[in-house]
Specification:
The protein is mainly alpha-helical. 44% of the residues lie in helices and 7% in strands.
C-alpha cells in the first residue's frame, strides 16, 4: 500500500521491488511475494536494473562472498531479461554516463 500510493505521480524508487525478487531467489528465502505483481500491475513502472556487468564493485562488499555477489548480479540480469526491464551494466561507467543512459530510455 505504501508504494502504490505513488501511482499518480512521477517518482523514483531505489531498489523498489526487484531486490525482493532477486534476494529471495538467490538466498532461497521463503516469503510470499505475490503482492509484487500487484504493485507492478498498478504502477506500470519503467524498471532499470543497474548491474556491475563485469563484477567490478563500487566498494568492497563486506556482507556477501564473491560467489554470492556474482549470483545476485546474475539473477538481476536474468530478471531484467525475463521481464524486459532495462538492464544497464555500469561496471566502468561514470555517474554522468549512467544518468545519460537512463535518460535515453525514459519515456
Amino acid at each position: 500500500e505504501t508504494i502504490i500510493q505513488y501511482a499518480e505521480v512521477s517518482c523514483i524508487f531505489d531498489r523498489g521491488f526487484t531486490s525482493s525478487l532477486v534476494y529471495s531467489t538467490v538466498f532461497k528465502r521463503v516469503f510470499d511475494l505475490t503482492y509484487l505483481d500487484r504493485i507492478e500491475k498498478i504502477l506500470k513502472p519503467q524498471v532499470f536494473i543497474l548491474t556491475r556487468g563485469d563484477h567490478v564493485a563500487f566498494a568492497p562488499d563486506t556482507v556477501y562472498s564473491d560467489n554470492e555477489v556474482k549470483l545476485v548480479d546474475d539473477e538481476f540480469q536474468r530478471l531484467a531479461l525475463s521481464r524486459r526491464y532495462h538492464l544497464i551494466p555500469v561496471g566502468r561507467m561514470s555517474p554522468i554516463e549512467v544518468c545519460n543512459e537512463i535518460l535515453d530510455h525514459v519515456n
